[in-house]
Amino acid sequence: MVVLAAEPTYVLVDTAVVGHLGRTELGALALGGAVLTVAAWLGTVFAYGTTARAARRFGAGQRAAAVAEGVQGSWLALAAGLVIVLVLQVGGPPLTRLMAGGEAGVAEAAADWLRVASLGVPGLLLATVGNGWMRGVQDTRRPLFFVLGACGLSALLCPLLVYPFGLGLVGSAVANAVAQTVSGVLFARALFSEKVSLRPDPAVLWQQVVLGRDLVVRGAAMQGAFLGATTVAAGFGAAALGGHQIALQLWMFTALAQDAVAIAAQSLVGAELGGGRVAGAKAVARRVAGVGLVTGFAFAAVIGAGAPFLPQLFSPDPLVHAQAWTAWPWFAAMQPAAGVVFALDGVLLGAGDAVFLRNLTIAAALGAYLPGALVARWLDLGLGGVWAALTLFILVRLVAMLWRVRSGRWAVVGASR
């Protein structure tokens, strides 16, 4: 939980620091951050695939083979990170202009932020894959220190670079890039210390690519929903975009904190199925669903109680506060359902049930979120309409995942799937 909460906690600090620069800078961070979140999501996809495969190997008593999954995942992560840097250096400005609509100042500032922040993407992806294989072999202590160290460095650098050093919004991007690179180096060193072959293995790489393909498509549909939400919010003006940034980053914080349950489920379910223990895997599924529900209600209570003052921590602008409050009821109400969805995500990811997750996420994004967002824009429902559509996206996934887990079709045993 500490590892997962560290990154969104830093993003909240970043939002608070930048928010006091002004409405334009906060909106620019929302746009640039939304684009970079897609890169972070790609790293999470690699991590999930690596965790599932490594956990099955580990459960079958094959630790060296489990670590080898991390080596191949790291090669994929490094290659993807370098490609993303090149794409964002060239395509960042037109992308932010497209997302910002008529807000030219926001688009220009977002492009400047993105050019610098994107340099940390290779390190970010290496770190997420490193987390993946280490979770697979149930080593959660070292990632704790690696992630806390990098995020602590970033949280220290951000306010210093933004204000005393006078870099403004770009100072936030520099802090991001430095911390992510340091994190990637730390996880790479952990891989070197395992004394396994670091050569690319085409057979294992291909198996990871096949699994990653389904997870990438699933994640693309999910990220498309959130990127679309930011784009629709931008159409309602800079204040709405700032309010959306506050609510979204708090939502990401709660999501990743609750994902601690999912990550535990992923590692434990993979190990149980790798060892041929179906009953144990199903018992994990039942327990984590219950924990997800309880944590969801707890977050809903905290979010509801914090409505009067939480938005004010991130911006002094009353118009931004007002916009954030329109999203707040939906933000709080979705938490219990989201808690169960995140938990069951971990169960099915640990089982390697990627095809089902891919198809479900596409269906929920295209059949629930997209129509809802279009209606919100067409009827001028504002930020509340955007967040109502995101809530529907969560509910559709909840119903389908409960059915899938109950069916038992996901519980396939063996050292690989």
If you had to describe this structure to a student in words, what would you say it looks like?
The chain has 14 helices and no strands. By secondary structure, the protein is an all-alpha fold. The protein has one domain (2-407). The mean pLDDT is 86.
Offer a quick outline of the entry.
The chain has 417 residues and is mainly α. Helix content is 84%, strand content 0%. It has one domain (2-407).
Order of helices and strands: HHHHHHHHHHHHHH
Q: Largest beta sheet, briefly? A: none
Span of the ends, CA to CA: 27 Å
* Radius of gyration, CA atoms, in whole angstroms: 20 Å
**What would the average pLDDT be, to the nearest integer?**
86
Counted by DSSP, the helix tally is 14
Low-confidence stretches: none
- Sheet/helix structural class: mainly alpha
- The percent range for helix content is over 70%
**Would you count the extended β strands for me?**
0
Question: How many domains is the backbone divided into?
Answer: 1
Give the amount of beta strand, in percent. Answer: under 5%
Morphology call = globular
Keywords: Membrane, Transmembrane, Transmembrane helix
Membrane topology: Multi-pass membrane protein
Pfam families: MatE (PF01554)
Main location: membrane
